[in-house]
C-alpha cells in the first residue's frame, strides 16, 4: 500500500523548498515539476494530496509519499523497475512482429502491472481475430539487476474456432448455397487450412449482413432486410453455428425514370443516354450508381465540376415498382489544395502525379480522381493504390492523398508450349517496366535454342518531357526457323514510334519500320516452291498508325465496356516491299455476380493487299498459338502439302492475306482464398485464314506448275484455362481441344504463357 502524506495544518504554510529521496533513474527536477508545488507559494493539505496523486499517475513509481516538515517538503519515491526486454513464448500462429505491434509496452519504459495486464488482453484479441477464441496469455515478470525486469508473455494458442455451419432462414428465391457464395464467412471443410474466412470473426458477421443487403438490392428486392445474424458457440467451444434470418420481400422493377436539373446551364436533355436502365427492368442498385457516374462524367466533360446527382426514389408498394428521378443539383465549390503522394521509394513523384489530370488550384472532380486511380493501378508499378480525399485548410479546399505500395517491376517473361509436331518450345525475355523509377519501359530478349536466335532491345518513354506524348523504339536481330513453313527467316531492323491522345477516350500511335528481311536455307526436298520463289533479301520501309478507342470501365481490370483498335501499315516508301496491311479489332466486356465472373467477346480481322509483285510469305498473316489457341503458331490456313512417297515430303504453311477470328472467354473464381490469386476460365475460338496473291505456283522441279488451295475453311477450338497471379508475375495455363480442323493443321493442346484473366 502506498504511504499517505503527513498533512500540514489546515491553514497551510509558505513552501521554501522540496527535497527528493529514493530516485535512481528519474531526475529530481522532473519529480519536483510533477508535484506542481512551487516554492514561495502557500501549500495546503489538498495541494499535498494532489501532488501524491500526480506522482502515481505517471506510472513511474511503485510507491510515493510526501513528508511535511514546514517550511520544507520531502518527496520519497520508490521507482518502478524499467523493462529490459519483452518476449513471447508458445506462439506459432501469430508471429512475434504482429504481437509486438499489438501491445503498448516497450523496452526501457517503466514497468507497470496494469499496463502488462492490458497488453495481455490485447494479445488475446489478436488471437480472436484469427479464430483462436481459447487462447490464453500468462504474463511472467523476471527480475534483473539494476532495477530492471523482463516481461515474458507465455501463450497457449488453443485450437482454431471454425464456422462449422452457415444456415439461412426466410430465403425462398435464393438457396442457402447461393447466399453462402455471397458472404465473406465460409464453412469449414476438407481444405480449411487454406481459408481465412472459415474462422469466426464478429466483425466479419457485420460485413456479411451488408453483403447480403447489396446482393438482394442488386437483384430487385428493395424491401430486403436481415432480421438477425446469430452466432452460437458449440458446447465444446470448438465451432460456431451461424444463422441468418432474412426477409426477402417481393421483387421490384424500375418504374418511372427521369432527370430533373436544378443546376444553371445543364438541361435534362444534356444527359440523354446516361440512364443505365429502362422501365420494366429488374430493380438493381448498381444501375442507379452507374447512372450517377454517367451523369457526373457528362457534366464533367461539359465543364461543370460542381454538381451533385441525387436520386429521388419512390417505392410503389402495390405496383412493386421503384420510380427514380435523378436530380442535378449545384454542389459546393471545392478546389484542389494539393496532392500528397506517399509510399513511393523508387518511383519518382512526377511519374505518379502526371496520372492526375487535376493540379493544385483546379476545381475538384471526383470522376478525374477515380480515373487517375485506375490509371495508377494499370501502370503495373504498384501492388496497391489508395486515393483518398480529405478537407484541406478550408471547407472549399480538398487534399488528395495518393498512397501507393510499390512492387517489383522487373520481370522474366516466358512461354512454354507443346505440340505433336515440334515438341517442347519456349521463349524468355527480360523487362523492366519502371526503369530508375521514371516510368520508362526497357526490355531485352535473348533467346537461343535449336530453332531461333533473338536479340532485341526496346525502350518506351510514356510521357516525353512530362507531356501526354509517348516515344519509343524497338531494335532487333532475329534468326527464326519457321517450323510450320520449313524455312529460315532473318530480320534486322529498327522501329521508332510516337503516341498521343486525340480525345478523352481515343489515342493514336504513329510508327516507322526499316528492316532487312531475308528468307534462306530452304531445302527443295521439304519446302514449298511458293516459299523458294520468295527467297532472298528484301528491304522494308513502312509507315503505320494505330487508333484505339477505349471505353472500358478500367484499364487495369476491366469488367464492362469495350475497346476498338484500327491499324494500318503502308510499305513502299523506299525499300523493296510494297503492301497495305489493315487490322481491326473490337472487344466487349461483361461481368456477372458482382464482377466475380468476367467475360469478353472479341472479333478481329485483317486484310493485306500487295503491289504488282504480290507479298512475300513473311509479310502475310499467320494464326495459332496465343492468337488462336488449340493450334500451333502458324498451324492453320493455306498450305502446300506434297508427298511423292520417296524422299520428298512437303508440308509448308503459307500464311494468308485475309483472316477473321472470333474469340470468347469467361473467367471465374475457383472458391479458393482470394490471396492465392487463382482463377479458372473457359474459352472458344472460331475463325479462318485464307487468300494468296496467286494460287498458281510455278517452277517446282517435280510438279512443274501446280495449284494451292487458299479457300476460307473454318477452324474452331475450345478449352480450359488456369490463371495465377503468382509471385513471379501473371501466368496462364491453357488446355485446348480443336473442334474443326483441316488436313495438315498443326495442333497444340497445352500452352503456358504470361497473362491475366482480363
Characterise the protein shown here:
- The chain is mainly beta.
- The protein is built from ten helices and 37 strands.
- The protein has a 16-stranded antiparallel barrel. Strands 2-5-4 form a three-stranded mixed beta sheet, with helices on one face.
- A hairpin with a 5-residue loop joins β16 (382-391) and β17.
- The protein is elongated, with a radius of gyration of 37 Å.
Keyword list:
mainly beta; three-stranded mixed β-sheet; single chain; 16-stranded antiparallel beta barrel; 10 helices; elongated
Which descriptor suits the 3D outline?
Answer: elongated
Calculate the mean pLDDT score and round it.
Answer: 87
Radius of gyration, in Å, reads 37 Å
Physical arrangement of strands within the biggest beta sheet: 18-19-20-21-22-23-24-25-26-27-28-31-32-35-36-37
Main sheet attributes: strand count, strand direction, barrel closure? 16 strands, antiparallel, barrel
Approximate helicity band: 10-25%
- Uncertain runs: 1-10, 190-197, 417-423
Structural class: mainly beta
Strand content: over 45%
**How many DSSP-defined strands?**
37
